[in-house]
Write a structure and sequence with these properties.
mainly alpha
Length: about 80
């Protein structure tokens, strides 16, 4: 399409308005995406709180150790 439209001149004020609309649309979409992510994170946290009532210090130490070992080396 760019080849077809390359000779069409757009008034600078119209171009500015179009760019502004695109920018605003992108901001709205980013905001919606953040809100969805926060809702999902909150739902996961709420479900986890229902499933895991209490963790002892010993269990927490074992979980932390397992996560540390599972992470692996960052060196190549």
């Amino acid at each position: 399409m760019s080849d077809w439209l390359k000779n069409i001149k757009i008034d600078p004020s119209i171009r500015t308005e179009l760019e502004k609309r695109v920018y605003e649309k992108l901001r709205e979409e980013a905001k919606k995406k953040r809100e969805r992510a926060l809702k999902l994170r909150q739902a996961i946290e709420d479900q986890s709180k229902k499933e895991i009532k209490e963790i002892t210090d010993e269990e927490l130490k074992l979980i932390g150790s397992a996560l540390f070992w599972a992470e692996g080396s960052k060196k190549t």
